[in-house]
Amino acid sequence: MDARAKDLRIEQLRHLCRQHGLVLTPQRRAILQAVLEADDHPTAERVQAALARRRLRVSRATVFRTLESFARLGVITKACHPGSSVRYDRRTDRHHHLVCLRCERVIDIQDARLDALPVPDTRRLGFVVSDFKVQLRGICRECREQEDKT
Ligand SMILES: [Zn+2]
Ligand SMILES: [Zn+2]
Fold first, then answer.
1. Which residue among 14, 47, 95, 145 has the highest number of C-beta atoms inside a 10 angstrom radius?
2. How would you classify the pairing of strands 77-79 and 87-89?
3. pTM over 0.70
């Protein structure tokens, strides 16, 4: 993500914080920055490690809580995947995921046909759909190459 796009997102967060009566602390700002700079849908743990590399000590619980509040504000999104911990996504636009079942890598893909999938009527189930994302699951190139070697 380029510097300009990052600045815009931080501006967006500043605006949303003001709207919701939150303070955009240097810590919150650094956490968002770390997500925007990560290119593989990081977990809270990986965001914490990225902060530690910049000598910022933030507890895992605080990182997690902050990421959850960012997702609620819509400044980042949550990527569902089969692993054990929540993965966060710097992208908020419609896109889909290739999920590697071996290494849990999550790769973004864009596909107009997937974007246009008809969403079933779930009102009967009392479920309101707010968004959707197609998850294509399989084995990534790196894992396949690893496999060929052994
Ligand atoms: Zn893989
Ligand atoms: Zn994504």
1. 47
2. antiparallel
3. yes
Residues with CB under 5 A from ligand 2 (ion): 89, 91, 108
For residue range 55-86, list pLDDT tens digits in order.
999 999 999 999 999 998 999 998 876 566 88
Between the CA of 79 and the centroid of ligand 2 the distance, in Å, is: 7
User: ∠ at Cα 110 (105, 113), nearest 5°?
Assistant: 125
